[in-house]
Each structure stands twice: as structure tokens, then as C-alpha cells.
């Protein structure tokens, strides 16, 4: 009986993860599985140069090494940073896309901040792209200024 | 003085540590996620109506059952039934967390697998384990229980390596492409501890990063060799300690963590820092050390026959 139990456990422990992947209680142990060749991040500043939480604008990085959505029941909070989503296109948003995205979330970001102090007239979004540059990693930055939408706040 | 490497109660001690971790993890705060579902099956509960998965009463119910059954197991009451109640309820609670989570945590999986192994042990040896005499302690920690623990830990790492190999080349021909150095540099750029000299050095030298990444892949792929002999087990164990030491050094912003705990000068939100793997890596490192470096004389024999005559 013991030998049968051990044998069944061994077969299940080895075979199930190969077939069921990330359906708990199975796992494919996928952290850092997909080799990333470039990445980018958003940094948001108010008119006074103070850094704001990118999550208020849906610009946070959701990717933490495991492909997004694999083995978890919920999607992360929507973000323009699509790193970690397989087949996400385009990989790096363009300036108009950033502007449109932030404009849509300008009012809600102000609410999430708690509406403390004076409302932002604009926010500055710095997009930093990291790519291989010789033996090291090179950073290329550009920024988008997004003004407060008319009639809001 | 207590010397656990020479203690005759290694198996029982392992169960106690497992159960204390189970209780601790089951009591972690739980908040139903308002986010949209990913779709598809991610746990054995995925087909259950979503209202049930988000009901706090269901979660509290699972938590109470896990804690009570764990206490029963700790006290050797109603074993092996209490053992399997722990296994089932912890699986349910972990599945509920995963269903409401946006990021996977492998610690639930490891803990659950080790619980299953030890529940099997109690199923075949519950009577002698329950007694307090020498017969009921380590002499009844059979080799197959230990073997399964090593297998669980080793296969997890090999699976991780296989996944990386196949992600780089689905045809299996050249998975070494995964270890190109660039991806390690990218991860270090995103999550690396900015105060680490090693991180800064690897960010500047892609060739060294490539060698490190190749070593990571080799360690993962060969981890399964630990099941073959005690010497290989220790060799793999040392490699995995170095492996986790590297990750904990490079990817945990210790200043932020200590700051969060009020130890350091600055307090930075850990979520925004580079501390995401702390729990998972620390947890796995602990179990690698606990399982892989135990003295052979503490382990039972394959020839051991269950005194309970279950077999």
C-alpha cells in the first residue's frame, strides 16, 4: 500500500505540472521564464516636480517576473505598461497614446490622491525605455505633458 | 542544548514547522479582488460560482478549519483524519487566495505538497507516531517520506528550468538562448537592489550576466539529480543556497524592507520597491536548508515496515 501511494505521488508530482501547468495545486514555476529584451517605465510628476504614484494614472508596472494572468484568477489593475502580457502590441506606447490614456484618468487620479492641495494644471509623464547598449543597458527617455481636461476637477 | 541536526525527532519537528507555517499563512489578510477575472481555470475551484469565491464568510470558514485541524494535527488528535482535513482545507484556502490574486505565489504550492507527503506518513504510521516512546519518533520517519520531500523541492526547480528552456526554444533544440545575459540585466534594471554593487556590476557587463544566467539555468535543470544520492543532494543543496542567496541579495531592497519594519532610516512602500520575492525566496531557501542538509542517520530505511500493519 505504501509503495503504491509513493508511486502514485511521484507520478502525479512529475506529470501533473507538465500537463496541467498553473492550475493549482499544480505549478509550472514560471518566474523569470520569458526572457525580456527591453522594458520601460513611467514616472509622473506634478507641476511642482513632485513625483506622483503612477498607479493613480494606470501607469504602474504590473509585471513581476511571472507572465501576467498565468496562474492567477484576477487580472491586474489596467495599465498602459503592457510588459509581461504576451503578444502585447505595440510594446511601447506612443506619445499620443500616453496623452490620451492619462487625460482619461486625470480626474480619477486627482480623486485617488485625495484632492489635497491645489488641483494639477498639468502632469508630466516621463517614459524611460531600457534597451541593450553594448555591454550594458541604455536608457532613453522622453516626456509627455498632459494638461487638465477642460471642465474637470 | 537543543541540536536539531542530531535530534531523533526530525520528522515530527518537520511536521510542527510545517503546521506552524500553515497556520501563519492561513491567517494572512485576505481581501477579495475587485479586478476582472483572467478567465480559464487557475485552480480546482475555478468552476465554482464567483460569488462563493469572494464571500468573506467562505474564507473565514476555511481559515477556521485550517487552524483547528492544524492544532489537532499538532496535538496528534484524530490523526490521520486531522492531517487530511488540513491538506484539504489548506488547498481550498490557497485556491481562494489564488482566485482572488493578481500575482502567483508558489509558497502555497510548496507548503501544500509537503503537507500531503507528511499526511501520507501519518496515514501509514499514525499509531507509532502518536506514541511518545522511541518507536514513535524518528524510527518511523521512513525514507520514502524524506525522498518525496526532496523530490518535491528538486522537481520544482527543474520544472522552472524546463519552462525557461522551452520558452526560449519550443523545439527544445537550444534553450540556452534564454540565458543571453540581456534579460537578467533587464530584470535587474527593473527590480534589482540599486544599492548592490553586484547589481551595478552585472548591469554593466552583459558577458558576466550571461554566465550568471547560464549558471542559474544549469542549477535549475540539474536540481532533480538531488533525488539520486546523498552527495548529489548536498551538492544541489549548496547550489540552491547560492542561487537563493543571489536572488535575495540582488532583488530585495533590504533598506526598504528594514525601513518598512521600522528598523532602517527610510520607510519606503515595499510594493513599489524591489522586494516582491522576499517571502517566496526566503520560504524556499528555508526548506532547501531544512530538507537538503539533514544528516543521513536521522532518516529511516526503505525496508521499514509499518508497525500499524496498515500495509
Q: In which range does the helix fraction of chain A lie?
A: 10-25%
Can you give the helix content of chain B as a percent range? Answer: 55-70%
Globally, the shape of chain B reads globular
What distance lies between the first and last C-alpha atoms of chain A, to the nearest angstrom?
Answer: 71 Å
Main beta sheet strand tally, sense and closure of chain B: none
Alpha-carbon Rg of chain A, integer:
21 Å
Oligomer: heterodimer
Could you give the distance between the termini of chain B? 38 Å
Structural write-up:
The complex is a heterodimer of chains A (153) and B (311). With 153 residues, chain A is α+β, with helices and mostly antiparallel strands. Helix content of chain A is 25%, strand content 22%. The radius of gyration of chain A is 21 Å and the shape is elongated. The model of chain A has no long low-confidence stretch (mean pLDDT 88). Chain B is an all-alpha fold. Helices cover 60% and strands 0% of the residues of chain B. Chain B has helices at residues 10-26, 50-53, 56-74, 81-99, 107-130, 143-168, 182-191, 197-204, 206-222, 230-251, 254-260, 278-292. The longest helix of chain B is centred in the middle third of the chain and has 26 residues, at 143-168. Classes of the chains: A alpha+beta (153), B mainly alpha (311). Chains A and B meet through α1 of A and α4, α5, α6 and α7 of B.
Helix and strand layout, with pairings?
The complex is a heterodimer of chains A (153) and B (311).
Chain A: H1 2-20, E1 39-45, E2 51-52, H2 95-113, E3 122-133, E4 136-147
Antiparallel strand pairs in A: 1-2, 1-3, 3-4
Chain B: H1 10-26, H2 50-53, H3 56-74, H4 81-99, H5 107-130, H6 143-168, H7 182-191, H8 197-204, H9 206-222, H10 230-251, H11 254-260, H12 278-292
Helix pairs in contact in B: 1-3, 1-5, 3-4, 4-5, 5-6, 6-9, 6-12, 7-8, 9-10, 10-12
